[in-house]
Amino acid sequence: MNKFAEPNFMGRALELAQQGLFRTSPNPRVGCVIVDAFGKVLGEGSTQPAGQDHAEIMALRDARERGLSVEGATAFVTLEPCSHHGRTGPCCDALADAGLSKVFASIADPNPMVAGRGVSKLRERGMEVSVGLEAQASRELNIGFFSRMIRRRPWVRMKAAASLDGLTALFGGESQWITSPPARADGHAWRARACTLLTGIGTVLADDPRLDVREVDTPRQPDLALVDSQLMVPLHASIFKAKRRIFIYTAIQNPEKEALLVSRGVTVVHLPNSEGRVDLAAMLSDLGRLQMNEVHVEAGSRLNGALLQAGLVDDVLLYLAPKLLGPGIGIAQLNALPKLSEGAQMAFQSVDMIGPDLRVVARMAGHADF
Questions:
Q1: How do residues 302-324 score in pLDDT, each as one tens digit?
Q2: Which active-site residues does the annotation give?
Q3: pTM
Q4: Which of 12, 24, 145 shows the shortest CA–CA distance to 77?
Q5: pLDDT tens across 322-334, in order?
Q6: Could you give the C-alpha distances from 289 to 154, 162, 174, 285, 333, in angstroms and in order?
Q7: How far apart are CA 180 and CA 320, in angstroms?
Q8: Edge-to-edge strand ranges of the sheet holding 31-35
Q9: Alpha-carbon distance 60 to 80, whole Å?
């Protein structure tokens, strides 16, 4: 019916998908709404933590628990239903077996194990399938999953908190706190959605941060990746306090230190480049291999600059406080440009007030063109 061409049911499915923001990693965030021929909602669901039920199964279960039949119904799903056996069974089979007649899928699944096979299988089972409703919104919600499947590396989001004149700390190192409590809590929500938090040894030695999620409720702590070329991390560092996986990327061999770290459950990875530092591109490829969708960077100006210079940052998440600090440490150490026109081109994704501070999300030009 014409009302199924309207985005309201898919919009609700996207709201349900958003509920999985902190929990579905490494799986995509997916929502599903099942409606009857008159537009009555029969069941709703969103993807649960990895290894548990997907959105379609949750929606079918919801309908059963309401005592409603889904025979001949239509499903609105924010991602193509899976067609393969993983930790769970194929969702396309579950929808067909339940007797649904039509599926609106927001966007095709980029996973090579699906990639159109779900749509084909549904059609083979006699179901009508339409793809494309709210596709951009669904892709953006799962930009890290799409990045890992297509580019074979995570989506990298670099976060910084600065004054209006671009300072993240005074020359003496003092940086707590430039922004307000609401901005810090918002930053923790962005931490919570990431698969991995990435920092550098300079930040660990200078600030001894925990780098975990504390300001918002989350069912899991993101993993931590540390760039530590010379394996200088202290064994008593606060990053070891949270229960999570920790990966330390280094450029040297230090069997004694490595043994101590491994005994604490840390994974040490050797990825030296020709300059005796960590090969950052190789590190991101390794994190992709480990099924990391989104990497949230909270580092100092040196690592920030290295990632930016290498073209490895996709989004910049910047909190600006309404204050001026004068001389100090900037967001990133970048090489001097010979011409203004050679600056990295970006596009604003959003600009919002968070308490008294400004939150800016900007995207590197062309980085989402995959």
A1: 999 999 999 999 999 999 999 99
A2: 56
A3: 0.92
A4: 12
A5: 999 988 889 999 8
A6: 9, 33, 37, 6, 29
A7: 10
A8: 41-46, 31-35, 74-77, 102-105, 128-131
A9: 16
